[in-house]
Design a protein that fits this description.
Number of strands: 5
Shape: globular
Order of helices and strands: EHEHEHEHHEHH
Oligomer: single chain
Radius of gyration: 17 Å
Number of helices: 7
Strand content: 5-15%
Length: 229
């Protein structure tokens, strides 16, 4: 019997690699992206391209309104996206953290997984080269897994939906190396928190800096198109 998985695809480097890993593990992949009121909405075009290139069975875009509550530089135009910050970007929770985002995303993915009778949900959270987000830690994923086991019909019936986090202990360089081995076209991805009107990455935000450092450490050519710095 064919295995099914719901894969969260943002359009960024990590989620593209996660989708490739799920496919490589033999899953029929159902990609889900979220229009949650993010200022960098252009990432959804990248998500569409990645899902198509990776052979997703279906790509669903769910519309939310996290910008209605704000509280993040990614959803509130009154909060600036930090750029060129020299301090350790993992030392604190930055203003680009979106309150409850992964909890909302995973809950909706869990619902779709039940509808599809899927065995797994793949999410590209990372606890090594990340920006200090609390909902990217192993402890958080373990807690969500426990909740999912209790809160779903499949879980109650003993058919657990596994939350898979294949990148959680990898460095950005290791992620890029793995994705390159699996044929990910990183030119299709967008990691930037503040792209310009043409969809070019700023090269200065935390996400861009981690991405650039990752390509350098992996000794892989960076295909990202950056705006003039």
């Amino acid at each position: 019997m064919t295995k099914k998985a719901v894969v969260l695809v943002s359009g960024g480097l990590d989620s593209a690699t996660t989708l490739a890993i799920a496919k490589d593990q033999g899953y029929d992949c159902y990609a889900v992206s979220f229009n949650y009121g993010q200022r960098h909405l252009v990432e959804l075009e990248s998500a569409k391209a990645v899902a198509s290139a990776m052979g997703a069975i279906e790509h669903k875009v769910v519309h939310l309104g996290l910008d209605d509550i704000g509280g993040s530089a990614l959803t509130d135009e009154n909060i600036a996206v930090p750029q060129n910050i020299d301090e350790n970007i993992s030392a604190h929770i930055p203003v680009t953290y979106v309150p409850a985002r992964n909890t909302v995303f995973l809950s909706l993915a869990l619902g779709w997984a039940e509808v599809l009778d899927a065995e797994a949900i793949f999410i590209g959270v990372n606890a090594v080269d990340y920006s200090g987000y609390p909902d990217c830690r192993p402890e958080y994923i373990d807690a969500f897994q426990g909740m999912a086991n209790l809160a779903t019909k499949k879980g109650v019936e003993g058919q657990l939906i596994k939350i898979e986090t294949p990148l959680i202990h990898l460095t950005k360089a290791e992620i890029i190396q793995k994705g390159s081995e699996l044929g990910v076209d990183y030119a299709q991805t967008l990691s930037c928190y503040a792209p310009d009107a043409e969809g070019r990455a700023c090269g200065r935000c935390d996400s861009c800096r981690l991405r650039k450092q990752g390509f350098e450490a992996a000794n892989v050519a960076d295909p990202t198109v950056y705006s003039a710095l």
